[in-house]
Amino acid sequence: MSIVPTQSTVLAAVVPILIGLVGCFILPSLVSCLYGQIKTLFNPIDKISKIVVRKHDDIEPGDVLNIPTDHDIIVKDVRVLPRTKVSCLQLEVVHFAFNGPMSDRTVEKESICFEINDHMLKVFKFCPAVVYSDDEVVERALKKVGEANFNSLVYRSSHMSKFCKVRNYRDKYWCSFKTLPAIEREVTEVFDLKPGDMINFRYYGLPHVGIVVGQLPIGDLVEIDFYHVKGGMTKCCTQEFDLNSNKILRHNYYDEDRFPLKETLEKAAKKEGEKVHPFRFFKSARLVRDCVLKTEK
């Protein structure tokens, strides 16, 4: 009996592997690219640059905001509200970032929003004698930004983080495969984390480790009156928004491309109550285009 695989056997094994590669890597990239092209075709303001807003002072009547669910609104008025609790933290984390299945993994400093008390965010606690000071950890982590020596077996984010955090990690633990004693504690309060901490969190749905190198100031809680299209009609609505979530974006127009803020509000007010064709895509985006842009760019 021959143990040499036949041509048909090889083909039978190769075809499923190729299908798997296409399904896991190539197809998602193609779908994402195609969706981006289609969205640009139907959304007249998709290519407008946007910046994150975290303070109510950064929002003026007449500004355009992109809110969660990828919806665009025209601000009529904004008011800051008292905050009783903080539900999320905006941290700067150094780790091996994932920029797509076809890209190289590099160490980056990334700003990430974390939910407090969701049982997924944990901080490592080590014996003080075996770790660097917090300032040293931050300095060591920032020096690693730009590295592209990722290895899923021996040098991923957990290893990189321990090199930044633990004294003599290479000789005492990494090379000898010894276990490093540590305790993981859930983060339940804002003050449970500080720069220099090593954290375990969910990244693209998977456990991931990184070094905290900074924390952004807590964003405002605001109430906004705004114009948008809802139920096939231009309406003025009021809603609370937590700017600490880092999910509220302000359109960044050039002054020469847009109408003055006051004129934008006047145009939006005139359209209040106006019905919109039910088969139009991105109805609120088209409202923004008509009230904000001098030309249909």
TrEMBL record:
Regions that span the bilayer: 12-35
Record keywords: Membrane, Transmembrane, Transmembrane helix
Name the record gives this protein: Uncharacterized protein
Organism: Mytilus edulis (Blue mussel)
